[in-house]
Specification:
The protein is mostly helical. It is 48% helix and 9% strand. The longest helix has 14 residues.
């Protein structure tokens, strides 16, 4: 099963779903400078999982987990690895039935990944009302 799959993080002519290198580097700088800051982690958590905004206890646990799990420099290093990763060449070698789950705003990238895996079933998960704009 693949959840919210990305074949690569960087945008290219053949992959318009990623962000530019400049956008990634700005995100990495922000993570390095602000990781551990409660308000930053709150925004970060809600951006990645919007339903946390409706559950203050779970949001608080998520914030504390992020603060305790990794230092700011380690979080930035992890983001850098994500920016540099590209799994395009291995998608065609997947030979097992694969379930791809994605959110509404990830249709393009999920379709891109799904088209390159032989036995795949792509499922869009419902998004919180009003979170994504058309």
């Amino acid at each position: 099963m693949l959840v919210r799959p990305y074949r690569r993080a960087l945008r290219s002519d053949s992959y318009p779903y990623g962000r530019t290198e400049e956008e990634w580097l700005e995100t990495i700088r922000s993570v390095r400078d602000r990781w551990g800051d409660r308000e930053y982690l709150r925004e970060y958590a809600i951006f990645h999982e919007p339903l946390l905004a409706d559950d203050e206890d779970e949001l608080e646990r998520t914030i504390w987990q992020a603060r305790l799990a990794v230092s700011p420099s380690a979080a930035a290093d992890f983001m850098r690895v994500g920016m540099d990763t590209d799994i395009t060449d291995v998608l065609g070698s997947i030979r097992v039935p694969t379930l791809v789950l994605h959110r509404e705003d990830e249709r393009g990238v999920a379709g891109y990944v799904g088209e390159r895996i032989r036995d795949v079933h792509v499922v869009e998960l419902p998004s919180p009302a009003g979170f994504y704009s058309d």
